[in-house]
Amino acid sequence: MDSAKGIHLGHRRLAVIDIAGGRQPMWTRDQRLGIVFNGEIYNHAALRVELEGLGHVFSSDHSDTEVLLYGYLQWGRDLTKRLNGMWSFALYDRLKEVIFCSRDRVGKKPFYYTLQKDTFAFASELTALTRHREVQATVSALALKKYFGYGYIPAPLSLYGEISKLPAGCSLLFSLSDRSIKVERYWQFSLEPTDERPAGFEERWTEELRHLLDGAVARRLVSDVPLGVFLSGGIDSSAIAASASRLKSERPGQLATFSIGFDEDEFDESQYARMVAKHLGTQHHPELLSLEKARALIPEILEKLDEPMSDSSILPTFLLCKHAREKVTVALSGDGADELFAGYAPFRALRWAERYRKIVPSKIHTAIRFLVAAMPVRHGYMNLDFRIKRTLRGLSYPEKLWNPMWMSPLDRPELEQLFQGHVDLDEVFSEAVTLWNTCSGLSIEDQTLQFFTRLYLENDILTKVDRASMLNSLEVRSPFLDIDLIDFARKIPSEFKIRNGETKYLLKKAVAPMLPAEILRRSKQGFAVPMAKWFKEAYLSVSTVPRLPGLSVNFVRHVQSLHRDGKANYHDFLWGYRVLQAHNG
Fold this sequence. Notes:
This protein is of the alpha/beta class and 585 residues long. It has 24 helices and 16 strands.
């Protein structure tokens, strides 16, 4: 605090490293620098040794927060380039009269900020800023369009026009003297696939990937509180569990794993989680998400979700975090592998989509879409009719819009009905369009990887996990998002990520010695819930009372009716609309 200059720093801490010595706000001995910090720096011990060698004297025993203070004192804004971890922090420099803020490379930790008149305010939650007495917050029409286009609001936008999100890989400098803000990018994910093929390169890459994964897991096993691993039974979480189990082999049976099962067989992976847990010898803790439990959780989640997002897997993610928190304070997850190693369904469709576009004239494509629209609607997990309809919808647009339109809750005519006017898709999906155009020299697979890593990962996946975990006072760490592993993955050619329609080729080869063959062979299954069925059978519904200005209630009524009558599948839009209603209720 520096009341004379109107500076106030506040912090609510989840203590994980140096519980006694890591209290915040934290200051240097001379009181020049103060910091509030959310996250974890995995290479803090090595940085501390280096800083002590340079003459810095620490007060704490092993606090990573204090390493940030003296690291900034030594290296200034270049500190961020030396960090391996997840973070958002604000550091007040009394001498230079600046506040230096930063967000980690991939956006695991959130950072919202606003500058209104003479007030500069920041927080880890959007809601915290809206409750500040000097902050105005009005819903942004463009942010709303992007929300119903992407299913999330991409940085730097937030739901409110006056409040921004600091993008991943960026720092912010606020000057107290002239009340100016300068945002600068210190890192950005960019694919640079190598053309080199040294002797035995595939085996060498496989071994290096395995080595880097072990190193990333080892760094994330350091904790002063109980720690476990999320285990779905898919390749990504199973690889993390296998590595962690092996690294903790000096204490056999001590690794705790956690999974969520469903009472809907199509959505349930629990048998595979049990298989991996038995294979690795972990202390496995399964939990079941029933319809009744989900319905009971929904009001609690929506009340606390903060900024709206329409990814319904927030439900099982929240329950998984709640379940794990009963035993541990830190959990490792497999997030990031799908983005780095091409694990999503669109990757398998890309070459087919290219050939289809070249061969099929637009008039025939329109006729095919019309015929496919008549297919019976099913509400199971990623049913064939859903995948075909989404694929053909994307192919109705230029390549630059394929990825966002494949993922979008609504088609353009539907967006226009919802917003009651013309919708410019290049504006709604401006981030995806810019990204596609700026990496046009890459293969179509790598262009798609850029979309998922720089947009979907930051604004959907990591946001969802951070919300669900923080609401349960649980810290989630993602070894696949270790900077050393990311730098390795950036340079691997796409044909070693997708081979003959098989996704995650190199990753599967690297983890094959550690896992049962059945886990490697099984198809990817997302962390989904039977949301379409719940809306169809009216277990869930949206209110059609006009609470959101500018949105057509008649359109909402119409699509809810179509969904319940089994004529269409609008579950992702209906869930997103319900989330938004709760936020503005």
